[in-house]
Amino acid sequence: MADEIFTVAQIFNEGFSTKSVRRLISSNKLIASRVGAGNRSLRIKKSDIDDYLAEHVNKTKGATVNE
Prior knowledge:
Layout: E1 5-6, H1 8-13, H2 18-26, E2 33-35, E3 41-45, H3 46-55
Antiparallel strand pairs: 1-3, 2-3
């Protein structure tokens, strides 16, 4: 089964800032491919987005705070 492919703008529409997405790609924390004339357009696989989110979820969610 083929993996869905997203543009930076499509990820932005899902609630991520384009600046954050580009920063993650530049720092090699999110995998993207350059396509098109001059390799200017970025494409990101859904599975790579899911992998990034799985590794960076807030692991303290539901934790109690010592008072």
